[in-house]
Specification:
homodimer, about 180 residues, mainly alpha, about 70% helix, elongated, DNA-binding
Chain lengths: ~180, ~180
DNA sequence: TGTACATCAGTGAACGCGCGTTCACTGATGTAC
DNA sequence: TGTACATCAGTGAACGCGCGTTCACTGATGTAC
């Protein structure tokens, strides 16, 4: 049955939100369109009214997941501390898409990679403002290096099967950050 | 037809080597057993004589890919420089499995994660020897943080669709490393 | 050392399941008068 | 404002393909004598 224009827009948002959560939690390949549509309280057939293909959904969902949030930490140090928290490590579904999907995204469509890259550029530009350094160039380098460091730290902390090592990885990265800030 | 014991061992090694290459290049899900067996010059049916399942192969292939190589750089700085090179970025198939498969490995079997974690522990222990710091604990923290940093840098450099940004990410991480070494 | 035969690694066809995608149909929406 | 009807978002069954896994068979290996 036809639905109102508002309902159409809300359905589309629900599909995107469900896809953004599920992709981050289970990875692109392991999530089926059925999974996404069920989570959005719709049925399979309706999908193609909203998106061209699953690959199209991946790109759109990445853009959705990368959109700025209201409570985004303002300073580089706050951002890194929150990024390296156990809460973030244990909540892939709502965390950074680059950490959740980074090594898979490499093999996805250019659109998907582009959406993730755009979001990353925005974050880097934002973090550059509060990064240490006398010149803009030095601050940008610091922001790029810091983002790389916390990204790798989070990926590693999630990957290892040993909880003690996982905690140690987070702690070591936090320590290195504050050391760098002091010097 | 039956083959000699030596041939059996060589076939197994060939399957592992093919899988280790293909998984890193295309990801776990996108590689089929047909792909692997063809690359090893065997046919599909023979697979189950060597491995219990595809999931078993993933774990074994990760262990294979993580085994120490002959030309492994000795010092932390050499290791990081090689890790952040464009050659490494552009050669996923023979590069670090953690960078190639890190965010996917999170969702794979405990065996797979364990093999990757074991290899990572070995590398961390190795890098700790040449890491800066007066105490063993400080050196270990430095090694963990450095490995996280180059891992994240490589994942990011591979992910972004903009070649200039990709190069910039590698360069920024190299710069940050040498800065840290100087201080 | 030579021969007979049991073993078993590898073959390739077949199976069954799941997933992306398509499509005829339904019925509420929203427009034209 | 009220009514008739064309539109079209969503439904759910169906399709087809690909993949992991199984299995009866083959023929070279390697052991027993």
């Amino acid at each position: 049955m036809k639905v109102s224009r508002e309902q159409v827009a809300e359905n589309r948002r629900n599909i995107l939100a469900a896809a953004a959560r599920l992709f981050r939690e289970r990875g692109f390949d392991a999530v089926t369109l059925d999974d996404v549509m069920n989570e959005a309280n719709l049925t399979r057939g309706g999908f193609y009214g909203h998106f061209k293909s699953k690959s199209d959904l991946m790109a759109q969902a990445c853009a959705f997941a990368m959109r700025p949030t209201e409570h985004e930490p303002q300073t580089l140090l706050d951002y890194c501390t929150a990024y390296l928290s156990k809460e973030h490590r244990d909540n892939r579904a709502e965390g950074c898409p680059v950490a959740a999907l980074g090594s898979e995204a490499v093999r996805q469509s250019l659109e998907t990679r582009h959406k993730l890259a755009e979001g990353t550029k925005r974050i880097i530009a934002h973090l550059s403002k509060s990064a240490p350094g006398r010149t803009a160039s030095a601050r940008r380098i610091a922001a790029l290096a810091s983002f790389s460091a916390i990204l790798g730290g989070l990926v590693l902390a999630r990957m290892v099967d040993d909880p003690a090592l996982s905690d140690e990885v987070l702690a070591a990265n936090c320590k290195a950050l504050t050391n760098a800030a002091d010097s």
